[in-house]
Design a protein that fits this description.
Layout: E1 10-18, E2 21-31, E3 40-41, E4 57-60, E5 63-64, E6 69-76, E7 92-97, H1 104-107, E8 109-112, E9 123-129, E10 132-136
Length: 137
């Protein structure tokens, strides 16, 4: 669903049926009304780090948002000597992303243990948010 509005709230049922039977699952859609605004990052974070070979490093980043943010930590990488693809999109590796076993507090910190020369580089924390929740009933 795109561009949902409050009147789209309600229960939606997906029905699959063939000659062997029928199954269905109902979902509840809730839409929050609000004025969208960008998340606010705590000033000065994350900060550049210099590490000694074999040491541990932590990058901290705090985001303030009235909607639930989705957070990812990325490391910029080179592919065939280039940091960006033909379309201009940077090459990245996802290091950490929200999941069933990850808390918001855990996503505020990226920990690198026993760093090596391969850990040197550019890291990015990405935030995005949406205002639609879909619950499985």
């Amino acid at each position: 669903m795109e561009s949902v509005v409050p009147s789209d709230r309600g229960n939606y049922t997906c029905v699959v049926e063939n000659k062997f039977g029928r199954i269905q699952q109902t979902y509840t859609l809730d839409v929050l009304e609000r004025s969208p605004h960008r998340p606010i990052l705590q000033a000065g974070l994350p900060a550049n780090q210099t590490a000694v070979l074999g040491s541990d490093v932590e990058f901290h980043c705090k985001v303030y948002s009235d909607a639930q943010p989705h957070i990812q930590w990325l490391k910029h990488v080179e592919v065939n000597g280039s940091k960006v693809g033909p379309d201009g999109t940077p090459y990245v590796t996802v290091l950490k992303t929200a999941g069933a076993n990850t808390t918001d507090k855990e996503l505020e910190v990226l920990s690198l243990r026993n760093v090596t020369f391969e850990d040197a580089g550019e890291y990015t924390q990405v935030f995005f948010q949406d205002l639609v929740w879909l619950s499985n009933l």
